[in-house]
Write a sequence for this structure.
């Protein structure tokens, strides 16, 4: 194998490490965001449960004030009954008192219902708080792990980038420029082997001349279809399958 091919393969390996590292690094942000969103969702649920409890308490106090107001009316009407000498006025006041008592009865029924709501709301707050606390602990741990991963990845990527720069500096500028041009077009697999008379990248059948150049191992050969850099080793099979067609598009 040509020395330049060996160097290019090492360079390609470092580039693949960088591609994978960058992809993993890019995934950390969304993972962290999803974890924080989950935490915020449980906090929002807790806030809603607490708001429900406050609403019930406000309604309870409003009912108490209404009951108090009707009791005050009953006391007033009762005093007026003692002062009146007319049966018609007395009966009218009695009717007003009975109406107030009926209202109080209805309000007391609502109060009992609110007590049930208050108990349910209080239980909901306890459940929501327990869940929020648990999720918060889990998210804090997850975020810490993600931050640690990010720090380690950035360190590793920096090391590989430095090594990649060192390897690139050892290559002929024209060869490096061609490698990087093909990389932009075809992705991380730039230097590929030959298999069954076909390019290991685009899988298109190669011409006899290209195969001879690859096997001769004296100069660089490129796939005429995808421009990838080709290489051949003795363990590779140059024989094309009997039913081989023109190949697949890349």
């Amino acid at each position: 194998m040509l020395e330049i091919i060996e160097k290019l393969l090492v360079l390609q390996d470092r580039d693949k490490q960088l591609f994978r590292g960058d992809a993993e690094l890019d995934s950390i942000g969304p993972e962290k965001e999803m974890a924080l969103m989950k935490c915020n969702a449980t906090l929002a649920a807790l806030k809603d449960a607490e708001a429900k409890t406050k609403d019930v308490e406000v309604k309870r106090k409003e009912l108490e004030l209404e009951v108090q107001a009707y009791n005050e009316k009953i006391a007033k009407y009762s005093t007026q009954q003692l002062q009146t000498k007319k049966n018609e006025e007395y009966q009218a006041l009695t009717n007003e008192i009975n109406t107030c008592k009926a209202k109080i009865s209805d309000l007391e029924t609502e109060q009992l219902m609110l007590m049930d709501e208050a108990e349910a709301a209080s239980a909901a707050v306890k459940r929501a708080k327990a869940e929020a606390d648990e999720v918060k602990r889990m998210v804090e741990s997850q975020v810490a792990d993600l931050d640690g991963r990010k720090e380690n990845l950035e360190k590793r990527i920096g090391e590989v980038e430095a090594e990649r720069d060192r390897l690139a500096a050892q290559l002929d500028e024209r060869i490096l420029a061609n490698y990087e041009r093909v990389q932009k077009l075809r992705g991380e697999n730039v230097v590929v082997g030959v298999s069954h008379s076909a390019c290991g990248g685009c899988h298109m059948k190669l011409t006899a001349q290209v195969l001879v150049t690859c096997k001769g191992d004296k100069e660089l050969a490129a796939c005429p279809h995808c421009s990838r850099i080709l290489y051949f080793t003795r363990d590779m099979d140059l024989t094309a399958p009997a039913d081989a067609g023109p190949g697949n598009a890349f």
